[in-house]
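Hi team,

As requested, here is the filled-out complex form for the adenosine-5'-tetraphosphate run. I kept the field names the same as last time so the parser does not choke. Let me know if anything looks off before we queue the next batch.

— J.
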Amino acid sequence: MESKKRIFSGIQPSGDITIGNYIGALRNWIELQDGYDCIYCVVDMHAITVKQDASVLRKRSLDTLALLLACGVDPDRSILYIQSHVPEHAMLNWVLCCKTYIGELQRMTQFKDKSARHEDNINAGLLTYPVLMAADILLYRADLVPVGIDQKQHLELARDLCVRFNNAYGDTFVLPEPYIPKTGARIRSLQEPEKKMSKSDSNPNAYINILDEPDAIMRKIKRAVTDCESVIAYEPETRAGVANLLEIYSVMKNLPMEACVKRFENLGYGELKQAVAEAVIEVLSPIRQRYNELVADRKALLRIAEDGAEKARAIARKTMGKVYHKVGFDSK
Ligand code: AQP
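And here is what came back:
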């Protein structure tokens, strides 16, 4: 029997998870569970590349796990765990760091953006973030990585490192492919549509948190920046604000873009915003309800995290054994 292809993806517990994260990545995580062997991870080690309060991070990691469950990650079908519970991530990170050139990392858009945003804390982890991400993926020999477009550059580095290592030491890692959705790969900020929607944005009106209450969703979408045109059209290059609302609508309603544009023919921005907000509320309300139930039982969440880490470690340990042997460490 042919074995299923493997998926790996992660999310940082660095803030409230937004509909950008949901549309760009999480909803695909859920769908892909049907046909793939899926491994999903709360990447708390990535989160400390920017300053975090320890107790807040600890709580957020488990809350994020609960949110993934609420969105539909099924721990009976997929492996779900917290990155720091599996030490092999850090072990492979170090080996791969020694195979990565500084110039490759300095070119990364996210490093440039985050260095500008965190001028007082341009630490080495911010620079080597993509190497840890490569380690996450290669450790599990993942075939496919569902991510938003912002992670494409990092995934290319993971592919380069895979080829570099395999060429030097023989076949060890599997070459991962990105899985980027056609619609919603880059959901934009509601306030500055030229930027991506980001959970660490200092302006909460710029993003919709998956757990936002309906009135907050309605308010934020009604305030979303659009333009002075009068016709609703999908022109992402020149009319990013309106295109963003149409993309959110298209994904939430599961309707092709042409049908969405037709739906709003001869209507105004007020009607568009009302319909987008209602569509978002309809999808997010059941997730919020499930999350509130799940998050109340910390013991059950910890059990799921421990169980997931054990399953993940069984795979990671095997890869790491091979890697240590190949690079010349004395593996017992
Ligand atoms: N705006 C977005 N549109 C589509 N996809 C997005 N993703 C993030 N923002 C958007 C995708 O969500 C997944 C998890 O992201 P992450 O937690 O690894 O961090 P990130 O990419 O750095 O996202 P944020 O929200 O901007 O976090 P902060 O503010 O902490 O840096 C990834 O697959 C990502 O592509």
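Two things worth flagging: Strands lie at 6-11, 37-42, 79-82, 144-146, 177-179. The mean pLDDT is 96.

Thanks,
J.
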